[in-house]
Amino acid sequence: MRSIWRTLDRGLARDIGLVCLADTLVGVSYGAIAVGSGFPLWAPMLLSLLVFAGASQFMFVGIVASGGNPLAAVAAGLLVNARHVPFGFAVGDALGRGLFGRLAGSHLMIDESVAFALAQRDADRRRAAYWACGIGLFVCWNLGVVVGAFAGSAISDTDAFGLDAAFPAVLLALVLPSLKDRAARLPVLIGVVVALAATPLLPAGLPVLLALVGVVAGAAAKEPKPLEGAH
């Protein structure tokens, strides 16, 4: 583990630190929103330790808090995290060789750690960036969730502090650059239309699932078809 920290240069460590700081604030908002929505104090903390996937955790809390079926919330979270399958192929060399190392590395596989790893050309730097970002975010996210959970138990209305807008704002910031790609616009548009159309008709949670299916279907429709006779 010492070799990982020695491999990081000052610039990379600074960038990872800034991401950790931002995710800490988002973790605070998640903990506060979860407890403010009626979840027990321990629930967001346990989810953060076992799941460690911000998008899925927010989605689960949002669906259940709005009256949706917990099973639908779990299914939506699994669909969102399905992107980790190609992530695993992309950064598999950074996870380590032993069983314990690969299991721990898989648990730390989130968008940020994968992005930092893929940005490195050297194998040692890729491994160092992956583990440093993953460990740093795991610690900072969970600390933020603990602080937010206790804050949520003291604050009766988290919406009044704008905490409800923190995670959507982060998601929007992440999604907007990808919309410059024409291939990404159709799946996103399909998902939005499906969610808006289904929300008045279906119980909470199901519109999200249908929207995710719409996104996948739209992405598949935009896949280039192989030429006839090509192998």
Automatic annotation (TrEMBL):
What membrane topology does the UniProt entry give? Answer: Multi-pass membrane protein
| Record keywords, A-Z | Cell membrane, Membrane, Transmembrane, Transmembrane helix, Transport
Q: Does the keyword ATP-binding apply?
A: no
Q: Where are its TM segments located? A: 12-35, 128-154, 160-176, 188-221
Q: Where does it localize?
A: Cell membrane
* UniProt family annotation: Belongs to the AzlC family.
Q: What is this protein called?
A: AzlC family ABC transporter permease
